[in-house]
Amino acid sequence: MATELRELITSGEYPPGSAIPPLPELMDKYGAARDTVREAISRLTHEGLVSPRRGIGTVVRQRASVDLSYMPNQTVQTWPAQTEAEKDTVVHCTWVDSDEHIGKQLEIAKNVPVFLRTRHQTKDGMVSRLHDQWIPEQLVEAIRKKGIDLAEETEAGNIFELLKIAGYTPTIVTETFSTRMPSPEEKEILSLEEGVPVLVISRVTRDANNKPLETSYMVGAGDRITQTLTVPIKS
Amino acid sequence: MATELRELITSGEYPPGSAIPPLPELMDKYGAARDTVREAISRLTHEGLVSPRRGIGTVVRQRASVDLSYMPNQTVQTWPAQTEAEKDTVVHCTWVDSDEHIGKQLEIAKNVPVFLRTRHQTKDGMVSRLHDQWIPEQLVEAIRKKGIDLAEETEAGNIFELLKIAGYTPTIVTETFSTRMPSPEEKEILSLEEGVPVLVISRVTRDANNKPLETSYMVGAGDRITQTLTVPIKS
DNA sequence: GAGTGGTCTAGACCACCAA
DNA sequence: TGGTGGTCTAGACCACTCT
After folding, report:
1. pLDDT, tens digit, for every residue of B187-196?
2. Cα separation, A102 vs A135, whole angstroms
3. Residue of A128, A176, A227 to mutate, testing the B interface (most B Cβ within 10 Å of its Cβ)
């Protein structure tokens, strides 16, 4: 039954935004019990094809359109491509002690203070990416000496500029991409539907001396976020 | 119930590889019916936490370890990081007509012949990444003039070298990362368990004149594939 | 209020695995 | 063979949405 319904959906018989037949109808059509039908729908839900809505019906989801077009260097693209500006807000700032992973990324010791900025990248009123950013104490100090206290900054995205001002010009970034299913907390914050994975990016930014300036851990909504990188090929 | 079990798993009470209590036991413990317990386990399954195994039990999955370490330029990393060589085999070669998307990527017209190579990247006997690669006719011809027929090549990964020989040196690649749940076919080929997403990479390779040389669409198993890129920051 | 999906129950039978 | 999870049924009640 799931196979047949999937076929009807992908073939466009039930276009995105429309609803598939309600449970009682499917029970009749396939001569199956209610939970059997629900199980089939559950599979399609976890494949990201449909979204059951209480009181409304089971609607076919919008396709994550595959217009992965060429983009300039290091951009984040959200879709649908609307003109509304994205927001990038710092929701939390604090000093934490480096754990093993952070220490390794920043090439510093364990249990030393690092500055943690937690940011939410918002688009169309929905949080589409979580961004945790760790900055070594030394650099936060260097920035403070220039008269800027990171803890008071609520505008985000200018950290590279601040680092440059402080004498640490970011020169190279290393990004590692992976994917997984979201935790319940991430699902909540990112307003993710059932069966939507997250795009995980782990980043280290370095200066010309290969010294790590910051490391980030980003979790993006898989149905709204895509990231494009342009890199030269070593020859 | 799902919340409590999730807590027990993530806290390490049920470590990876171990089994959570069997259905009858959980029914007793929570005073719930069989299908109610199964529903809770189903949620954890689709979060990627556990894998029910008929005749064995419901085992806690191995963590996709987050040792996202620094890697050199443009590498693909699979884990667990074993020494066994990966294989990259061409499973299918054919001429197809360009559709709208491929035409856009390669900056050529629709309905002109392009060469399609379908590859399987294998690790430890499991296919871990699917790779469809489209190459414009002109370039396949240029390579053929150098005495190499792409259709007869079964070794993969040397296309960049061949292009260079043919006078089209690849200089820059643009990669777009996204994620989604696998189709049933992908799930089958990649041996994916329930609740494992795929990492999707759309790539365009260009030469020094910004002319597209090839475009690729790669689908990697989310529980085994990660990709690291190192890029310079434009200043 | 009528119609939608969400949860839960109690019981049955099937498929797979290990000892 | 006994224990595991997978599927299915029939019925009940709840929660939500629209008119």
Report:
1. 999 999 999 9
2. 10
3. A176
